[in-house]
């Protein structure tokens, strides 16, 4: 089944027409309503009339996460805050989150693109969808929730965590679709196994997993353990949240909701567009969003675009599964973490040396973060209490600012290897 056949199956020619018209409207709107874009366009000697269609897209300026941060919190909004009915946020390098806003119409657009994604993944009206993505500022929970309601499915808004209860409700409520991060799916699968529950006794059919990179191996593993088809869903808060793209049952690339988000890939250094099928940094231009329209937003995700027919009948451009990024952002249990955030917390506390190392691992299928940091030699000759106090202080600060649990290890000076080139701040032991 296809949720919106008109848009998901139109000819390339028709799609270009839709995109061109919506792009021109968006450019006109941001030029007049967002001083940031007016200035950027003026610097490039561009007026809205210079953009006549999709072929002019490369003339437009890029937008980065830094631009959102510099204009924190509402500076890039194209509507007065009174028109904004919802805010979401994701974490950023400075400790300040990236704030995104939605008008009433944006919320409806979001439900539409998530509805398409869920149906693309194989979900239907008579499904019982367990939403184990986090509810809150993170877009995962509420995004999937609204899309599930839009298709008329039964939603279980359990949010993330609470594994025992997840399994109990899965049994009692006969969930047919599980939605969560792939790492949590694996954790759930292992917990089901450990509890001696036969996955065949559950009613699960499909898993819709995303919000972090995951490999084909992990997919196979989850599919075997749970006896389901595991589908990849992609999105980012800045563009809308989940629902930017999603795989169909043929699992050969994620169908992009192109009539809302125009994809491009660019060379991350030259910023020149790369050809269809060539790997590059994924860039999106939103062409229907009201509150936070973004021109050529650089996602930092690396992938390639695929054009051509898919056996499911959709004609939309697909993107290959994303596994890499161009920056140093880590995704730990679905939370975006930049090493510089931890650095600034350590520097703020001030009692340690500026030598630190982040060790990311995956234990029992859950991401773990350990922070090693050097302290003065005296600490080790003082009472142990002082060392423990500092370690606790760092741990609490990181946990409250980043919202993820962390283990802190204070080490003696010169324990952490110095580097002669770029510092190696992160050891990521997770195998992706
Ligand atoms: O993770 C939105 C989302 C929620 C997508 C639920 C899918 C399901 P952010 O927190 O802003 O938004 O993080 C966006 O996460 O730029 C990618 O680096 C990464 N990411 C998201 N989905 C995938 C995926 C949500 N399927 C950032 N594969 C993005 C690989 C993904 N990476």
In the CATH hierarchy, what is the superfamily of the largest domain? ANL, N-terminal domain
CATH class of the largest domain: Alpha Beta
Structurally, the number of domains stands at 2
The assigned structural class equals: alpha/beta
Q: How would a textbook summarize the main sheet? A: 9 strands, mixed
Shape call: globular
SS strand fraction: 15-25%
CATH architecture of the largest domain: 3-Layer(aba) Sandwich
Oligomer: single chain
Proportion of helical residues = 25-40%
List segments where confidence is low: pLDDT < 50 over at least 5 consecutive residues: none
**Radius of gyration of CA atoms, rounded to a whole number:** 23 Å
* Order of strands across the main sheet: 4-3-5-6-7-8-9-14-13
Describe the structure.
This protein is α/β, with parallel strands linked by helices and 432 residues long. It has 2 domains: 1-326, 3-Layer(aba) Sandwich (Rossmann fold); 330-431, GMP Synthetase, Chain A, domain 3 (2-Layer Sandwich). The protein contains 12 helices and 21 strands. The chain has helices spanning 5-8, 12-33, 35-43, 65-70, 104-121, 139-150, 163-172, 182-194, 216-226, 339-349, 378-381, 384-402, and strands at 84-90, 98-103, 128-131, 154-156, 177-180, 206-210, 229-236, 241-247, 254-256, 261-266, 280-286, 297-303, 305-306, 318-319, 324-325, 330-332, 335-337, 356-363, 366-374, 407-411, 426-428. The strands form 5 sheets. The chain has a 9-stranded mixed beta sheet with strand order 4-3-5-6-7-8-9-14-13. Strands 10-11-12-15 form a 4-stranded antiparallel beta sheet. A hairpin with a 6-residue loop joins strand 8 (241-247) and strand 9 (254-256). Helix 5 packs across helix 6 and helix 10 (339-349) crosses helix 12. The longest helix has 22 residues, at 12-33. It is globular and about 75 Å long. Bound molecules: 5'-O-[hydroxy(phenylacetyl)phosphoryl]adenosine (DLL). 5'-O-[hydroxy(phenylacetyl)phosphoryl]adenosine binds next to helix 6, strand 7, strand 8 and strand 12.
């Amino acid at each position: 089944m296809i949720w919106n056949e008109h848009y998901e199956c139109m000819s390339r020619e028709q799609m270009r027409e839709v995109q061109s018209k919506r792009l021109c409207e968006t450019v006109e709107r941001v030029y007049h309503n967002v001083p940031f874009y007016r200035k950027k366009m003026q610097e490039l000697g561009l007026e809205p009339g210079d953009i006549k269609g999709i072929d002019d897209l490369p003339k437009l300026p890029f937008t980065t996460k830094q631009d959102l941060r510099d204009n924190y919190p509402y500076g890039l909004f194209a509507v007065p805050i009174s028109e904004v009915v919802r805010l979401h946020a994701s974490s950023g390098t400075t400790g300040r989150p990236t704030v995104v806003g939605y008008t009433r119409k944006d919320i409806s657009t979001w439900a539409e693109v998530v509805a398409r994604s869920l149906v693309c993944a194989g979900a239907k009206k008579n499904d019982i969808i367990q939403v184990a993505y986090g509810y809150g500022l993170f877009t995962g929970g509420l995004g999937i929730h609204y899309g599930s309601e839009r298709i008329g499915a039964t939603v279980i808004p359990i949010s993330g965590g609470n594994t025992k209860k997840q399994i109990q409700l899965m049994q009692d409520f006969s969930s047919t679709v599980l939605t969560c991060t792939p790492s949590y799916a694996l954790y759930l699968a292992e917990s089901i196994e450990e509890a001696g529950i036969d996955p065949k006794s559950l009613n699960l059919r499909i898993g819709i997993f995303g919000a972090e990179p995951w490999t084909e191996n992990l997919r196979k593993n989850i599919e075997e353990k749970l006896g389901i088809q595991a589908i990849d869903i992609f999105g980012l808060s800045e563009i809308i949240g989940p629902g930017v793209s999603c795989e169909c049952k043929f699992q050969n690339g994620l169908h992009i909701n192109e009539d809302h988000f125009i994809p491009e890939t660019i060379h991350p250094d030259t910023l020149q567009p790369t050809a269809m099928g060539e790997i590059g940094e994924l860039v999106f231009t939103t062409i229907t969003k009201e509150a936070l329209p973004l021109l050529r937003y650089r996602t930092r995700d690396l992938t390639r675009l695929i054009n051509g027919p898919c056996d499911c009948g959709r004609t939309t451009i697909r993107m290959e599964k994303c596994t890499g990024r161009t920056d140093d952002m880590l995704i730990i249990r679905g939370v975006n973490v930049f090493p510089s955030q931890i650095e600034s917390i350590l520097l703020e506390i001030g009692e340690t040396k500026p030598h630190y190392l982040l060790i990311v691992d995956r234990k029992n299928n859950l991401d773990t973060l350990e922070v090693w940091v050097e302290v003065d030699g005296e600490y080790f000759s003082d009472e142990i209490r002082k060392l423990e106090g500092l370690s606790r202080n760092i741990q609490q600060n990181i946990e409250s600012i980043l919202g993820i649990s962390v283990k802190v290890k204070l080490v003696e000076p010169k324990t952490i290897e110095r580097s002669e080139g770029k510092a190696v701040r992160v050891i990521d032991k997770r195998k992706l």
